[in-house]
Design a protein that fits this description.
Distance between the termini: 39 Å
Number of helices: 15
Radius of gyration: 20 Å
Shape: globular
Structural class: alpha/beta
Order of helices and strands: HHEEHHEHEHEEEHEHEHEEHHHHEHH
Strand order of the largest sheet: 1-3-2-4-11-5-12
Helix content: 40-55%
């Protein structure tokens, strides 16, 4: 059961352990995703590190399109050879962290807040961030009949995906910057925060039970298609309009025991991002095809097109922005000031980037060395 805010503050870091438990009952633990028909194994290919499979987790969000495209177009399977790609989809970060910790997945695409929570909860032993994937793709969408300006958000009901998730932290921080007081745990205050699964948010908006939502794509564009208005793009709040929305994490033990497999997945990710940026229309279609394979339903063009435009795909983990997001969680009272030194291990990624003739990336002082 959730604890009250004063208990969170007394227990400090114990809140990190609580966050994954708060939403496990409300979301799937992880569903097997469908591999694309294009994921064929080359003749004579061998297994990587002797592994029969590498288990890859991601969300059914366009902000995870590197993974969607990597599976749909066969980038992962090509690099892994005869080692099978075993994909699984998740609805929320805490459930993916649980899967990583249990060994149900080896590598995952995930947001910064659950990455931080998982790292701190395990005292830095469970995971490493090994690369970036995407920036942007998060918006505050509101009912234009009820909210006409940013100041009108006060007193309204705004949905975020879950307590302590990346968008929840971002909205609480933004609300605090407006001078509004909100109890982070209950979501009550000058604005009411309604934690709602992204799959349910459009229906909640249509029913009038929420007045808006601070959500990632494609949920934001689904709300616009229902008559909502984009009141704020989160990118506008960040320097250079860039902030990490999706990281690549790996189970620490898997990184140690199977470095060649990790390198293969990272190389595939780099190739997928390169292809996405060179072929945006084809990439958008491929991501949508994988979403359809995983969920049984493709996104309509009215949702897909605007959502895609707001996301940037990058190998850079934008580490400095992750540190800022951690500070926002501390400010909201959801996290005791964490020690994130060592959360990144970008050694393999930078090796790949250097070999590809691309610029290496920086851990902003939070790397393993």
């Amino acid at each position: 059961m959730p604890v009250n805010r004063s208990a969170l503050l007394r227990r400090g870091i114990a809140v990190v352990a609580a966050l994954p438990l708060l939403t496990l009952a409300a979301c799937s633990y992880g569903s097997k995703a469908d591999k694309a028909d294009t994921a064929k194994v080359a003749a004579g290919a061998k297994k990587i590190d002797g592994l029969s499979s590498v288990k890859i987790g991601y969300f059914g969000n366009l902000t995870h399109a590197t993974a969607l495209v990597g599976i749909q177009k066969g980038f992962f399977q090509k690099e892994l050879g005869a080692t099978d790609v075993s994909p699984a989809t998740f609805n929320a970060g805490p459930s993916e962290i649980e899967a990583l910790n249990s060994g149900s997945i080896d590598i995952g695409w995930i947001g910064p807040s659950p990455s931080i929570n998982g790292y701190v909860k395990s005292n830095g032993k469970s995971l490493k961030i090994i690369g970036g994937s995407a920036s942007g793709g998060v918006k505050l969408v509101v009912n234009p009949k009820k909210i006409k300006s940013l100041k009108d958000v006060k007193g309204k009901k705004i949905a975020t995906p879950q307590l302590g998730n990346t968008q929840d932290v971002a909205f609480l921080n933004w609300a605090a910057d407006q001078g509004w007081k909100v109890d982070a745990q209950s979501g009550k205050g000058d604005v009411t925060v309604v934690r709602t699964d992204n799959k349910i948010t459009p229906d909640a908006y249509k029913s009038g039970s929420i007045d808006g939502a601070w959500v990632p794509e494609p949920t934001a564009s689904k709300l616009v298609a229902e008559g909502g208005k984009v009141l704020l793009d989160e990118a506008s709040l960040w320097p250079d309009k860039k902030f990490v929305i999706t990281n690549i994490i790996v189970r620490a033990g898997f990184l140690k025991d199977h470095p060649k497999a990790v390198e293969a997945v990272l190389k595939a990710s780099v190739e997928a991002n390169k292809w996405i940026n060179a072929n945006p229309d084809e990439a958008k279609a491929a991501a949508n095809k994988q979403l359809e394979a995983d969920s049984g339903k493709a996104l309509p063009a009215a949702v897909l097109d605007p959502a895609w435009k707001s996301i940037q795909f990058t190998n850079d983990p934008l580490a400095a922005t992750l540190n800022t997001e951690a500070e926002h969680a501390v400010k909201a009272g959801l996290l005791e000031k964490p020690n994130l030194k060592g959360i990144y291990d970008l050694t393999v990624l930078n090796k790949i980037l250097k070999a590809e003739g691309e610029s290496t990336v920086d851990a902003a002082g939070l790397g393993t060395s």
